[in-house]
Design goal:
Layout (H helix, E strand, L loop, with lengths): L1 E7 L7 H5 L3 H7 L2 E6 L6 H10 L3 H4 L24 H7 L4 E4 L11 E3 L12 H7 L2 H10 L10 H17 L3 E6 L1 H9 L7 H18 L3 E6 L5 E7 L6 E5 L3 E6 L4 H9 L4 E6 L14 E5 L2 E4 L8 E2 L11 E5 L9 E3 L3 H8 L14
Parallel strand pairs: 1-5, 1-6, 2-15, 3-4, 3-5, 7-12
Antiparallel strand pairs: 2-14, 6-14, 7-13, 8-9, 9-11, 10-11
Helix pairs in contact: 7-8, 8-10
Length: 368
């Protein structure tokens, strides 16, 4: 059989009752196997997807933020992940691959690739950006549907992604296909942390998934995942702190010292209302983080780091073990999950094993 791995950004396990009442995903969920998966730290889209792709924690992928440092540019490119990824191993095993709008796949060695990427400005021509980052075959699908795009905004990006994915599935029939949809996450940021806060987004995602599932048909095992959940937030934490450079990752922050000692910096941070915990460099491995910064600060419930001094009604970037937990949903799988609790790093090994491919070097292990 073939396999499709579909990421619904911002989906967490507690959203499943809302999606269970929908027409398309509701039917799938009713007959699927479901595990509850821990996010990684920080629970941000790109670090989480790097771990999904690789089966490895950030200490090995090297991806600890949506943005690169020091350039602070979006980490669209597969080259930012230091480890092999699921599509690399599938191709080595002789399987055909496709990926549409999946984070951190730009420039990857994927047969039919249309990555998540956008131009610098809303009115810029997107053709050069996609031509440089798609596979040759993927670029033709981009051209076919590019009028659906509205820069990086949703729902345009999801309308584009679903249309491209459906065409690729129907015309190419790849052995392994990846898809990422981001509208749910964007709407949670604006309206609240639960799918119940955004019923219009639930309906929109389900409408897209109807077309996607129809295209996949009975030939594909379908794996649906979330990357992280959301928490309510209402208070902003500062990113300007004397003697430190603070890079916010939502409900956490990477701290680089600038002319101040570790003890003094930790003491100053701990005294700030809304900072729940400060991890030192030697403690970062306990979070599966590389020692690439001096301190790591975690916000208390209801707080988030914000350069603007304002926060949206919900967000993420929390410590993965603290939840919320994304689901790992498997439909049409001729194997049984051996456990119902897992981590994002267990997902790629599971998908590959279902395809008969091993994932040596992964931190995670298959659920089948």
């Amino acid at each position: 059989m073939k396999a499709a791995l579909i990421s619904i950004d911002g989906l967490d396990h507690e959203d499943l009752p809302a999606f269970s009442r929908t027409e398309s995903l509701g039917r799938l969920i009713a007959s699927a196997q479901i595990a509850r998966s821990r996010a990684i730290t920080p629970a941000q889209t790109y670090p989480c997807h790097a771990s999904v792709l690789s089966g490895c924690y950030p200490e090995h992928t090297g991806v600890v933020d949506n943005l690169s440092h020091p350039g602070l540019s979006w980490q669209w490119w597969r080259s930012a992940i230091r480890t092999p990824i699921i599509t690399d191993l599938a191709r080595e095993a002789g399987l055909s691959t496709a990926s549409v709008c999946f984070p951190m796949t730009a420039g990857a060695d994927i047969d039919c690739l249309v990555p998540e990427i956008w131009a610098e400005k809303p009115d810029d021509d997107t053709d050069p950006v996609f031509q440089a980052s798609c596979s040759e075959k993927g670029y033709r699908y981009y051209l076919r549907h590019k009028d659906r795009l509205d820069w990086m905004r949703t729902p345009g990006m999801d309308l584009f992604a679903a249309a491209v994915f459906e065409d690729i599935i129907r015309e190419e029939r790849p052995d392994l296909a990846l898809l990422h949809l981001s509208y749910l996450d964007h709407q949670k940021h604006l309206h609240g942390p639960s799918a119940l806060s955004v019923p219009h987004a639930v309906d929109f995602i389900d409408t897209l998934m109807k077309g996607v599932l129809d295209a996949l048909g009975d030939d594909y095992m379908v794996f649906i995942i979330g990357d992280h959940g959301h928490r309510a937030q209402s208070k902003a934490l500062p990113v300007m702190v004397d003697g430190m450079v603070v890079h916010p990752t939502g409900m956490s922050a990477e701290i680089y010292l600038d002319g101040i000692g570790v003890d003094e910096a930790a003491s100053r941070l701990s005294a700030i209302e809304g900072i729940a915990h400060v991890y030192r460099k030697e403690e970062l491995p306990s979070l599966h983080l590389p020692p690439s910064y001096d301190l790591f600060a975690v916000a208390a419930e209801g707080y988030a780091f914000s350069p603007s001094g304002k926060v949206t009604p919900s967000g993420h970037g929390y410590v993965g073990d603290d939840g919320p937990y994304p689901p790992f949903i498997a439909y049409g799988l001729p194997f049984t999950f051996v456990r119902k609790e897992c981590s994002l790093v267990d997902e790629a090994p599971t998908v590959l094993k279902a395809l008969g491919v091993d994932m040596p070097g992964a931190d995670g292990t298959a659920l089948i």
